[in-house]
What does this fold into?
Amino acid sequence: MRVAIGSLACLLLPAGAGAGEASPALSDPAPAKGWIVTLGGTVQLGPKYEGANAAGLSFMPSISWRRAGEPESFSAPDDSLDYALYETDRFSFGVAGTWKSGRYSSSSPRLFGMRDVPWAIEAGLFAEYWPVQSHLRTRVEVRQGFNGHHGLVADFSADWVERFGRLTLSGGPRLSLGNASYMRRNFGVSLSEAMINPLLAPYSPSGGAKSLGIATALDYAWSEQWSTTLFARYDRMIDQAENSPLVRAIGQRDQVTVGLGASYSFRLDL
It folds into this structure.
């Protein structure tokens, strides 16, 4: 029956639609043009300086961009600003940078006699790898300090990522290291400083581990333009940082940071 009906349909076709004429092919949709730019900012409540026992507010702006039509890549709230120089679906490598607030003796009476550690810019490289694609991300950053300190910092992180429609839940462990120059600048106490401040003993740390912790974040996309992120991070000062009088005598080993961020995305046609 199907063959007979098909033959009848062929007879009813217009003459111009003969077997020798190919039907028009469906063309692929043209790729989207332009860029998607995302501007954001995060308000954080966390330690006034590394190892402090008092909290303070800070603000960190952010910017990212991607080609129109490309899916938005995952980024943890405590990632540095970065730019990928090489990128595949599982691996990326590029430059990274961040800003760190300083430590000032005027912020606490317990820092009397301690030299100030001004704000610093840290710039360097990052690498990311997804052992479980779309779910498990590992990342390392190595950064050199400028202005406030001139040491090296290495941050290691891993995040498990789950997406539930507009909601993205992520989190995982953190490990931070610093070389001798960084540790002495931020956790060392000179003999002259110890003589002025009776709460502190002289201390000259070497390079090594600084903190071990965990972070988690909850991101919700209200629309294609707006999204908000709630996050928290806990760090435990360890090794060279833990043994510093700045931590043991006048600070604390447990460091907690919470924050709320918002971002806005818009299309830029070039």
User: Anything to note?
Assistant: Confidence is low (pLDDT under 50) at residues 1-27. The first strand starts at residue 35 and ends at 47. Residues 36 and 71 are 10 Å apart (CA to CA).
